[in-house]
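Problem 3 from the worked examples.
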Amino acid sequence: MRTAPKAVVGFGSGTRSVAPSVTVTCAVSAAGGAQCWGVGQSGELGDGSALSQHVTPKPVLGLGSGVSSITTGAAHACAALASGAARCWGENGAGCLGDGTTTDRYRPVAVKTLTAGIARISAGGGQSSVVLSAGPAKCWGDNRWGQLGDGTRTNRLIPVAVLG
């Protein structure tokens, strides 16, 4: 355990955003590339492996540039792209990757129906959400307690509009 801040090895100045979770931290570099480090048990490091560990930042496959922000959930991560689209990777049991499946993904996949207009992205325990620059907020994934805000308790495999 560290008692004082220390620079992350291999990650230069100008970091755009950092997203820590329990086992993984991801960040966006000044050049817009996504990098993650820590212990990935379900592919949340985005390096193509189901189970891996990195003690220094490693590039997320396919996201070497064009990333505007990044977020981490319990066992998945998502990135908002400068184009306004989104990519997610990791554990997908409840559909939190938004690709229309419940298959774990070890590298980023496109979130269906989100091709432009994402202003912010956020991941939770087993769900993900975006705020669009125009239109309603949208969420997907685990909805057993109604946390997606769509008026149901049905898990959603692709983004649905938050009511209200």
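Problem 4, a separate protein:
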Amino acid sequence: MNEMQESVKSGYLLEKFRLFYLKDISSREYVYHYHDFHKLIWFISGNVEYHIEGRAYRLEPHDILLVNKGEIHKPFIDYDSPYERYVFYISSEYLEEHSEGKDRLDLCFQMASKEQGHVIHLSPAISGNLFEAVKQIEKLNYDNAYAKDMYSRVSFIKFLIELNRSCISSPEIFHKMARYDKKIVEMIHYINENLSKDLTIETLSAKFYLSKYHMMRKFKEETGYSMHQYILEKRILAAKGMILTGMPATLASMECGFKDYSTFSRAYKKLLGQLPSDKYGK
């Protein structure tokens, strides 16, 4: 995809997880984008409003922002002050691999969706301890000591366990004071829960009691997407997930609302750069 399109698949993750320290001091324009992996941002400083799936969050220092894979997002930044943060890219397969039974390492990401709040506010004591863990993981990036990669993985898993424990013991840490259009957020939730159903503009307009043109305009304002493109990409990403679990591509296309396979295959190739039948190397 290129930046002339409405959204961009952004970033690539070759490792199981990766930590970046980033500080933007000059103006940079971000586009709406999504990832094939989860993203955790530890916000340090700046004047930033983060938009995720129709919700807008004003970030405060040491907020933790959780973005599930496939979620459309974009930061809006006032460059009067530097935008400073730590960013984790995290493979969903890695979290699955190291989860045990009900003790899932992706719990914080699941709760972010369930609680409808992508931002975590921790108490100063817990935040301080977890931030030290982040700094330790960063330090290991530049360390050549014995078993540094193993130590980094262990440190990261410990970090996630402590974060998940905080989420379980205090669900109120999920900050829900987001700015959003209630109708559009309800519509986004409905679309993502009903990808196999009829999601035409006419059907959604009738269901949510909105005129077609007002609905389409508001949806584009709140998400950066046309409704057609949003539904199409969500269906393709959902189908990709099913195919990766072993489901036949033809069945995955039907499960995700495509009426014929050739239409699905062309759209899949255009968005992801390969055919549904191609084998993924990862």
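Solution to problem 4. Residues 148-169 form the longest helix (22 residues). The mean pLDDT is 88.
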